[in-house]
Write a structure and sequence with these properties.
The chain folds into two domains: 16-135, PurM-like, N-terminal domain (60s Ribosomal Protein L30, Chain: A, 2-Layer Sandwich), CATH 3.30.1330; 146-310, Alpha-Beta Complex (Phosphoribosyl-aminoimidazole Synthetase, Chain A, domain 2), CATH 3.90.650. The protein contains ten helices and twelve strands. The protein has helices at residues 4-11, 59-77, 95-112, 163-171, 173-178, 185-196, 202-208, 222-233, 256-265, 281-291; strands at residues 22-24, 31-35, 38-48, 80-90, 115-123, 127-135, 154-158, 214-217, 236-240, 272-276, 295-302, 307-310. It has a six-stranded mixed beta sheet with strand order 1-2-3-6-4-5, covered by helices on one side. A six-stranded mixed beta sheet has the order 8-10-7-11-9-12. The protein starts with a helix and ends in a 15-residue tail after the last strand.
Amino acid sequence: MASEFDIIARYFSFAAAGSGGVVLGVGDDAALLQAGSEQVMVATDTLVAGMHFPAAASPERIASRALAVNLSDFAAMGAIPRWLCLALTLPDNDENWLQAFASALANGCAQYNVALVGGDTTRGPLTISLTVLGQLPAHALSCLRRDAAKPGDDVWVSGALGAGAAALSLLEPAAAKSAAWRPTAAQAQQLEQHFYAPEPRLALGQALVGCAHAAIDISDGLLADAGHIAAASDVQLVLRGDDLPIHEALATLENKQQLQPWVLAGGDDYELLFTAARDQRSKIEAISEQLGIRCSLVGSAQAGSGVILQGANWTMPAATGFQHF
């Protein structure tokens, strides 16, 4: 069966870069378009109840997650979000639900200085599709992109990993019931907060423009998203398991068979995975300190293909990340 990315490549890659004002088209976290003398960044994400969030989640949490997930694509490009379109599919027109959802979305838009400018509503299973439009920072000559990693680059990860998948294991009733690990109330709260309100690394992405070579946000899973950079850039990424930053809420989890798949392949972390030349280390460390965002040096890029995981106590999981098909 064709994967999500096979479907895109096979059927929907007919808009080649360089045609119709397309600077960077299908295949990255967002598209970059030339509109007269201006460049516009565009990204779309769709979240479906029961697939991307629990169907019973509150409308406030759904709105928060939908916006953050979409803005994370802009973080991966080093872009500034400006405008938002919402396509909302609803099973019914529950006005209490709509009021709560709209209020939370408005708060998020105010937080990130994004204006809701249009959209559509229709009836059907609960689905939220957001299209974000924006611009590059004034200092940027280009955006961050997946296909620009070079042999010899360092590989970095922002923040910490594993919280998204761990949270989902608690939010899914069947998984939570059978889980061997029982987090404390404080840990569970941390994990749920991360799942429903991940922090898109917008400031970091913008600061990395002109410093990093390639970048992607970790949504499908570290290994899967590293594979996207490797494939697009025609390089091999070598990741050191012992250097991977693990979320503090998972500090008491000693079962490596449970922890490692969350860190390596769980996804929903919405951190940035990026590559940069070795001579940029001090600049990246300075950016990290200035923004208060941890950036960990976790590997390197070299000639070859695919992703290699190093570490005597680390095992490549059977599935390297989330796939729709």
